[in-house]
Design a protein that fits this description.
Layout lengths: L15 H13 L14 H13 L3 E5 L2 H12 L6 E5 L5 H8 L3 E5 L9 H11 L3 E5 L8 H11 L2 E5 L7 E2 L2 E2 L6 E5 L12 E5 L2 H12 L13 H5 L14 H11 L2 H20 L4 E2 L7 E2 L4 E6 L7 H10 L5 E2 L25 H7 L2 E5 L6 H16 L1
Parallel strand pairs: 2-3, 2-4, 4-5, 5-8
Antiparallel strand pairs: 1-9, 6-7, 6-11, 8-9, 10-12, 12-14, 13-14
Helix pairs in contact: 1-9, 2-9, 3-4, 3-7, 5-6, 10-13
Length: 394
């Protein structure tokens, strides 16, 4: 019986330039982002400048994680205790966690069968709730109709915060993911598109949002040492009014990220090649269906989702176990209880007033999720899908 023998969590090594720079930083002993000589820009500030230019935004802030980038984005956008925040119900736990952390109250919105926020339900809940914020998670790289989302936001005066942890480098109608909303958050956690273990990036064109986020990240009064920041005059109005949450990235991790930026576009093309190979193979398996991709969407295929229409919901755990025994590591977003990284919205019991969302449950009931690391090859994709087909046919 054929078996797959590569781990689904194995990332490629950090580029040698990043390793060499990391060793230089360690030997210097100056790891903290503000531990600089007077004429020195520093690795974190250089990363901020480089990423702002790559993303096509005026301002960028490097943070300790994608989750802290979301939290700072929410706070800088104006979310405070008791504010309602619209959010699509299909996401990972740090997203509602960020809303809870800043004292907001999540208003969960349905998704459709293609894993996008349901714009009809969004408009309805924007109208009935009066919420003035939307935290839009492009979960697993699926980008909704951003023109429709922004039209709803404009109608109801909603500030949009984009969670782009899974869409770094993706586009909708040629616009980079993260550049539609007022502020965006990205992740450089190990399983994202650049790997620093943990890390995050916040981008915006709003100088006040950027200044607030920089102060709150823990800049003290050293904000002028940031690589993609507003003018000093913007900071003067808020410098003593923002709390310090100590969310600073360090030079060591910045060096690792910077080294990967030079190959990011190349890696995106490699991910999409593997994704398309898996997608093509999976579509030939009886009982498997995959989401429809909007032609306006340019995605980054670092994971793939499919539904097991041939199996009943009660059959899925055994299917996952059989695939796992043959080396194919699959996750399920329809389980009643959280497992590892996956959880369904109704397991976030710390949230107030968790609604029943039948469309979201129907979309997730048979949704299988699989990472697509760059350590895979075309042959690996073929072996994986052969095993999946075999276990579905038994």
């Amino acid at each position: 019986m054929i078996r797959f023998d590569k781990p689904f969590t194995q990332q490629e090594p950090i580029p040698e330039a990043g390793i060499e720079r990391a060793v230089e930083i360690l030997r210097s002993g100056r790891i903290h982002r503000y531990n600089l000589t007077p004429d020195e820009l520093g690795d974190v500030a250089q990363l901020e400048a480089d990423y702002a230019a790559w993303q096509g935004q005026d301002y960028c802030l490097a943070t300790t994680s994608g989750g802290t980038a979301i939290q700072l984005a929410l706070r800088a956008a104006g979310v405070s205790h008791g504010d309602l925040v619209l959010a699509n119900a299909y996401t990972l736990a740090p997203v509602p966690g960020a809303i809870y952390n800043v004292g907001g109250k999540a208003v969960l919105v349905e998704i459709d069968q293609n894993y996008h926020i349901d714009c009809d339900d969004l408009a309805k809940k924007a109208d009935t709730s009066g919420a003035k914020y939307l935290l839009l998670s492009h979960m697993r790289g699926h980008i909704a109709d951003m023109e429709q989302v922004m039209a709803i936001a404009d109608t109801y005066g909603i500030t949009v915060i984009e969670d782009c942890a899974h869409t770094m480098g993706a586009r909708y109608h040629g616009v980079r993911s993260g550049n539609y909303g007022h502020v965006a958050a990205f992740s450089t956690q190990t399983y994202k598109h650049m790997n620093s273990g943990e890390g995050g990036l916040l981008t915006t064109n709003d100088p006040l949002i950027a200044a607030k986020a920089i102060i709150m990240s823990g800049s003290y009064m050293l904000y002028e040492r940031h690589g993609a920041r507003p003018s000093a005059e913007v900071f003067e109005t808020i410098r003593t009014k923002m709390p310090n949450f100590s969310c600073r990235l360090d030079h060591l991790r910045a060096a690792l990220i910077t080294a990967q930026m030079s190959v990011l576009d190349e890696n995106i093309a490699r991910w999409n090649h593997l994704y398309q190979r898996l997608d093509s193979n999976l579509r030939r398996i009886e009982g498997v269906s995959l989401p429809v991709r909007d032609q306006a969407e340019f995605y980054v295929g670092s994971s793939i989702q499919f539904r097991t229409d041939k199996l009943g919901k009660d059959d899925i755990p055994d299917f996952l176990s059989r695939c796992g025994a043959r080396g194919v590591d699959l996750k399920w977003f329809g389980a009643e209880r959280p497992t590892a990284f996956t959880s369904r919205y109704d397991s976030w019991e710390y949230l107030d007033d968790i609604p029943d969302l039948p469309a979201t449950k129907a979309a997730l009931d048979k949704t299988i999720d699989m990472r697509v690391p760059l350590t895979f090859t075309d042959d690996d994709c073929d072996v994986i899908t052969t095993i999946i087909a075999s276990e579905l046919s038994d």
